[in-house]
Amino acid sequence: MSVNNFETALAKIADWFYKLKKQISEGEIGSKERKREMGWSIALHGGAGDIPRSLPPERRQPREEGLRHCLQIGVEALKAQKSALDVVELVVCELENWPDFNAGIGSVLTSDGTVEMEASIMDGNSMKCGAVSGVSTVLNPISLARRVMDNTPHIYLAFQGAHHFAKLQGVETVDSSHFITAENTERLKLAKEANRVQIDYSQYNYPQPTQNDAEKKLPFANGDSQIGTVGCVAVDSHGNLASATSTGGLVNKMVGRIGDTPVIGAGTYANELCAVSATGKGEEIIRATVARDVAALMEFKGLSLKEAANYVVNERTAKGTVGLIAVSAAGEIAMPYNTTGMFRACATEDGYSEVAIWSTS
């Protein structure tokens, strides 16, 4: 063997060892074993925003109860070896049925006093996803999004097309009046009086201020507030990841307006590395491609889940606009937010469990 050939062979061996070391350090080698060791994990949210610590118990406790209830359902499903995809759909269905969140039965009203719900779901293994918008009669929009994913060649159906597909699929529907509650009708009335688009969880929704105080205190958004949105992310015991998000939008939004929730890569994303569900101001989330950016930072920069999630929330988006929940294939959980608070809950196979709204620091 010539000297040149020998040096070339040595260079190839060195390069092979370098790549092997890199794969091991980044978890590409032996990752399945680590996934099994970490086990399953789950996180869910009920919206982020200007949630005052003075939030009255009658407003706070039902949401905390809802998070605990839905978390327990998700935990039991994961213990029963349900797939991550089935678990996130199941949990978000339960959140949609809980009237204290802005999704499903609790959905807020448009400027015309109608309901236009939206939802999306994504499977990290296959990268398949489904989304719906402008839904007004489907009891659980997240399940319709799942049907779009499973039973069509498309990703996204909206308005008349989504309703027609719902009929073809035989999903449960109700009259649109089912979603128009007294509380949300009052919210719309107050928002119209102030001539603003209203963010849920704002001070305006609690002890009613005077008109002048309402103008000063209400943190309206020029765009989406998506606060009250619900979401769930999970990794099962086999390391499969999934994400699901659902919302009614924001009070007094323009008819036909679509936010981040059904936009894959913005409000919802999952791949083989992580699953993410975002909540906050939709235009901000869409511009920053929040959910996808978390995964991209892990994939291309080698950041951990928490590093990636914290960077996106605190460096890529404006303060007071965004929160997210995320899980990694290794079972890690991240739940950062740059708002006053975020209704959130999580659990892991090793017994850790948390339900929280504000930072403890």
UniProtKB/TrEMBL annotation:
Which residues does the annotation say bind substrate? R257, I258, G259, D260, T279, G280, K281, G282
Question: What EC number(s) is this enzyme filed under?
Answer: 3.4.19.5
The record places the site described as Cleavage at G228, T229
Q: Which reaction does it catalyse?
A: Cleavage of a beta-linked Asp residue from the N-terminus of a polypeptide
Keyword Cytoplasm included in the entry's annotation:
no
UniProt-listed SUPFAM superfamilies: N-terminal nucleophile aminohydrolases (Ntn hydrolases)
Q: Name one Pfam family in it.
A: Asparaginase_2
EC category name? hydrolase
Q: Where is the active site?
A: T229
Q: List the transmembrane segments.
A: none
Single annotated GO MF: beta-aspartyl-peptidase activity
Record Gene3D superfamilies:
(Glycosyl)asparaginase (3.60.20.30)
Sorted alphabetically, the keyword list is: Autocatalytic cleavage, Hydrolase, Protease
- What GO biological process term is on the record, naming one? proteolysis
Superkingdom of the source species? Eukaryota
What quaternary structure, including any partners, is listed in this protein's UniProt entry? Heterotetramer of two alpha and two beta chains arranged as a dimer of alpha/beta heterodimers.
What protein is this chain from?
Answer: beta-aspartyl-peptidase
- Please give the organism: Crotalaria pallida
**The organism's lineage?**
Eukaryota, Viridiplantae, Streptophyta, Embryophyta, Tracheophyta
